[in-house]
Amino acid sequence: MNKIPMTANGYKRLLEELQLLKMIERPRVIDAIAKARLDGDLAENTEYQIATERQSFIEGRIFELEKKLGLAEVIDVTKLSGNEITFGATVKLLDEDTAEEHTYQIVGNDESDINKGLLSITSPLARALIGKQVGDKTNVNTPGGSKEYVVRMVNYGR
Questions:
Q1: What is the pTM of this model?
Q2: Residues 91 and 150 reside in one and the same domain
Q3: Cα separations in angstroms, 44 against 35, 37, 52, 70, 146
Q4: Which end of the chain has fewer CB atoms within 10 angstroms, the N or the C?
């Protein structure tokens, strides 16, 4: 299977979520199911149905997180350097249409949050930026049409 690139922060966040689910949420939902069973007829017991649905969600998420963490390729961006944009780079871009500057760090899918400036490596913009350097231009097709960006800065270790 293919490795899943992520930063150390992204890995840590997924690991913390996994521990929360296993140590707190799983026991809590098991307890809720046991209490709901005491209320009688399970077919008409809303608390039981809600708890079992929650258990199913928790177990599914635990499975998903364990798989992702097992395939994780943790990349320490503080050890990266260079002029070329790669995974982990923090980039400052100039939008040539609006003259606005945007700053993004290129991260793994599970840690991306555009509102925090964390751009998924699989996004069209990140894919267009890989290999570029300061001064390079790139065109990106967006739902609103084609956008042109100029790379203003490339930095590692945000």
A1: 0.81
A2: yes
A3: 15, 11, 13, 40, 54
A4: N
pLDDT value for 10: 93
Domain at 49, CATH number: 1.10.287.180
How high is the pLDDT of residue 13?
Answer: 95
What span, in angstroms and rounded, lies between the C-alpha atoms of 60 and 72? 18
Regarding whether 81 and 148 lie in a shared domain, the answer is yes
Cα–Cα distance between 115 and 120 in angstroms, integer? 12
Q: Which of 1, 157, 7, 158 is nearest to 73 (CA)?
A: 7
Same domain for 17 and 70, yes or no, is yes
Is residue 146 located within the same domain as residue 131? yes
CB 57 within 8 A of CB 6: no
Are the C-beta atoms of 69 and 16 separated by less than 8 Å?
no
Cβ–Cβ under 8 Å, residues 88 and 74? no
Q: What is the pLDDT of residue 1?
A: 66
pLDDT of residue 145: 85
- β-partners of residue 75 are 7
Residue 87's domain comprises 77-155
